[in-house]
Automatic annotation (TrEMBL):
This is DHA2 family efflux MFS transporter permease subunit. Its main location: membrane. NCBIfam families: efflux_EmrB. Pfam families: MFS_1. SUPFAM superfamilies: MFS general substrate transporter. Residues 15-488 form the Major facilitator superfamily (MFS) profile domain. Belongs to the major facilitator superfamily. EmrB family. The keyword Membrane applies. InterPro entries: EmrB-like (IPR004638), MFS (IPR011701), MFS_dom (IPR020846), MFS_trans_sf (IPR036259). It is a multi-pass membrane protein. The chain crosses the membrane at residues 12-33, 53-74, 81-105, 111-130, 142-162, 168-188, 200-219, 231-248, 268-293, 299-317, 329-349, 464-483. It comes from Robertmurraya mangrovi. Keywords: Cell membrane, Membrane, Transmembrane, Transmembrane helix, Transport.
């Protein structure tokens, strides 16, 4: 980093602000799209197995590109990467907004993902090199407040837009904001970076893409195609083999694309484990609550978004508070309290009925999000704090990649559990109903009975998935007992001199 901008001096707030706005737009776009999926299915006449590729494809592109960001951050300036990322995101948004067939919409969505994949690791790396460890929690808390505002307003805003306009308006709404942010970055970002003599290992890129991409595709497809599908277990096996080969290669080449030696730092390894487990449990709420609210209870998209608003606001408003508490007390006590809340509330979600009140759902979801706010950022920051500065790009890239992988695994696992439990419960309820039938029921009565059985079976499937998620959250709770407050480790690795350290040079405009 430039000698005039060491961590002890004033951080480059201008650069950080611009990057945060860009990341906020990317986050907002994701939360806007979730509620729009049923409308897209109806308008483009596609099935759920097809429309889910708007989410799966996004995760795939992230899983393939994020591992390369460690190299990109070392090689190029913040300005150059930001402009490329926002340009890709803006072009993707424009294409998606005019799409009248699904392939074009998916193309736009994947271009958005390619921009988003660069944005988040870039912002995290700038935050890490800009603030000393003792102030990093507060800085990450403010960062969390801004980013969590997106899921706070996204579902409600999306529900209102969908009820009053065409789903394409979601992209038209984001496009002008994205263009303005791109122009601001183009004219105001002025950081400098000396030429760095490193090159991307092509074989590592191929192995990484096939490895992470195969695992993500396999787990993402399992919920629809089933675990016995050759496409599912085949891509997972190919992905695992490629990933193992990738890891072995990274340990042997002089300048690895993604440096796995960061796992020799125990708190970073522990934070990765907790974050992956927590992500799997977290997806239970993101995935199952909307299904329960809209499919079983028949609540409108707008009201469903409103129901989740207090929880998102609680998470956003708690971020700066959690950051200050992290600086003062460390991550262990925060993680234990937060995970205890998450475990209890996840269990309470496994007791849903047809009569569970709207207010009860809103309050329970808000408490669950409150608990989550005390875990994610403190645990992640505590792990990154132990790394020497030259490993920051690798640490942020690894964390973001594992978030995608664990999210895909969690989604596939919970969807499979819910589907299997629903199917077995429907069979059991159907057999009991046939035994209890008296006389010859009318077709209307039979249709109503089938509908009731389907709803009861789905409710049982959702409750059982939440119960499994409770045990997953409990695993993270146990792991949190091993968290320790860390000091930055000394980097004892002797390397050949290079023209530039791995941190980007930052000089505020």
């Amino acid at each position: 980093m430039d000698q005039t901008m060491k961590q002890s001096n004033r951080p480059p707030y201008g650069i950080i602000g611009i990057l945060m706005i860009g990341a906020f737009i990317a986050f907002l776009n994701n939360t806007l799209l979730n509620i729009a999926l049923p409308s897209i299915m109806a308008d483009l006449n596609i099935e759920a197995t097809t429309v889910q590729w708007l989410t799966t494809g996004f995760m795939l592109v992230n899983g393939i590109l994020i591992p390369t960001t460690a190299f990109l951050i070392q090689k190029y300036s913040v300005r150059r990467l930001f402009i490329v990322a926002m340009s890709l995101f803006t072009i993707g948004t424009l294409i998606a907004g005019v799409a009248h067939v699904f392939p074009i919409l998916l193309t736009g969505r994947m271009l958005q993902a390619s921009g988003s994949a660069i944005m988040m690791p870039l912002l995290m790396n700038v935050m890490l090199v800009s603030f000393p460890i003792e102030k990093r929690g507060t800085a990450m808390g403010i960062f969390g407040l801004i980013l969590m505002a997106a899921p706070a307003i996204g579902p409600t805003l999306s529900g209102w837009i969908i009820e009053h306009y065409d789903w394409r308006m979601l992209f038209h709404f984001v496009t002008p904001i994205s263009v303005v942010v791109l122009l601001i970055g183009f004219f105001l970002l002025k950081d400098k970076k000396e030429k760095v003599d490193i090159s991307l290992d092509l074989l590592s890129l191929i192995l990484s893409s096939v490895g992470f991409g195969g695992i993500l595709y396999g787990f993402s497809s399992a919920g629809n195609k089933g675990w016995d599908s050759p496409l599912v277990y085949g891509t997972i096996i190919v992905g695992i083999i490629s990933l193992v080969t990738f890891i072995v290669r990274q340990s042997k080449i002089e300048r690895p694309m993604l440096n796995f030696s960061i796992y020799k730092y125990p708190m970073f390894a522990l934070s990765s484990a907790i974050t992956m487990v927590l992500n799997m449990a977290m997806f239970s709420g993101m995935l199952l609550i909307p299904i329960y609210v809209q499919t079983i209870r028949g609540i409108s998209p707008f009201d469903a978004g409103l129901m989740m608003l207090p929880g998102a606001l609680a998470m956003a408003l708690m971020s700066p508070v959690t950051g200050k508490l992290f600086d003062k007390y460390g991550g262990r006590i925060l993680a234990l309290i937060g995970l205890a809340i998450m475990t209890v509330t996840t269990y309470m979600f496994s007791q849903l009925t047809f009569e569970t009140s709207y207010t009860h759902l809103m309050v329970l979801h808000a408490i669950r999000m409150f608990g989550m706010s005390m875990v994610m950022m403190p645990v992640s920051t505590n792990g990154l704090n132990q790394l020497p500065p030259r490993f920051y790009p690798h640490g942020t890239a690894m964390n973001n990649t594992l978030n995608q992988v664990s999210g895909a695994i969690g989604t596939a696992l919970l969807v499979t559990i819910m589907s299997n439990r629903t199917e077995s419960e429907a069979k059991t309820l159907g057999e009991e109903a046939m035994k209890n039938l008296t006389g010859q029921p009318t077709e209307a009565a039979l249709a109503q009975l089938k509908q009731e059985i389907a709803m009861k079976a789905m409710l049982e499937g959702i409750n059982y998935s939440f119960l499994v998620a409770t045990f997953i959250a409990a695993v993270a709770f146990v792991l949190a007992f091993f968290i320790k407050r860390v000091k930055q480790a000394e980097d004892k690795t002797v390397e050949k001199p290079v023209p530039e350290k791995l941190e980007p040079k930052l000089a505020e405009n």
